[in-house]
Amino acid sequence: MSDAPFVDCVIEDERWEGIDLPALTSEAAAAAFAHLDLPGAWEISVLGCDDARIAALNETFRGKGKATNVLSWPSEERAPETAGAVPKPPDQDGDPELGDIAISYDTCLAEADAVCMPVADHVRHLLVHAMLHLLGYDHETDADADLMERLEVEVLATLGLPDPYSK
């Protein structure tokens, strides 16, 4: 098995090409998987879309008919039963597919502009966040949120990015 995650990016909104979503996704995946010590050829699919598409997906899958920044669909349930616990790593010998991510250019751009952050840096953060979801991390409880945020901050630091929660 290779130590690089395989990322399949589908670009529906051409504005993503301006910031090279496939490269940002590969970079975020490599950093997240290295930090979590998960070597292997994991597979992730990413859809670069706009607010209209992500709002439709959010309505279909979450019953929320509004745009959001990023959505994720793990290929299997990996969340631990105990709040704040680390999820069990995916099976290295099993199915390498971890799941799917959709990310909206419009919302990412608006959020990045609101905090005067380069959109590529914000996208890296959201991709790391979504990848942690694919691995079973969540923020449903305070304990889960604390763990997930700490990991996001640590992974982002390996990419030279500041703590997005310190503002």
Q: Strands of the biggest beta sheet: in what spatial order?
A: 1-2-4-3
On the 0-100 scale, what is the average pLDDT? 93
Assembly state of the chains shown: single chain
- Silhouette: globular
Number of helical segments with 4 or more residues: 5
The ordered string of helix (H) and strand (E) elements is EHEHEEHHH
Beginning-to-end CA distance, first to last residue: 40 Å
Q: Class by helix and strand content?
A: alpha/beta
- Contiguous low-pLDDT stretches (5 residues minimum) are none
The count of DSSP E runs of length 2 or more, i.e. the number of strands, is: 4
- Radius of gyration (CA) equals 15 Å
Strand content: 15-25%
Helix proportion = 40-55%
| Major sheet characteristics | 4 strands, mixed
Describe this structure in words.
The chain is of the alpha/beta class and 167 residues long. It contains five helices and four strands, in the order βαβαββααα. It has a four-stranded mixed sheet, sandwiched between helices. The longest helix is centred in the C-terminal third of the chain and has 17 residues.
Concise structural overview:
With 167 residues, the protein is of the alpha/beta class.
Provide the fold topology.
Layout: E1 6-11, H1 21-35, E2 43-49, H2 51-62, E3 70-74, E4 97-104, H3 105-114, H4 119-134, H5 142-158
Parallel strand pairs: 1-2, 2-4
Antiparallel strand pairs: 3-4
Can you tag this structure with a few keywords?
4 strands; 167 residues; alpha/beta; 16% strand; four-stranded mixed beta sheet; globular
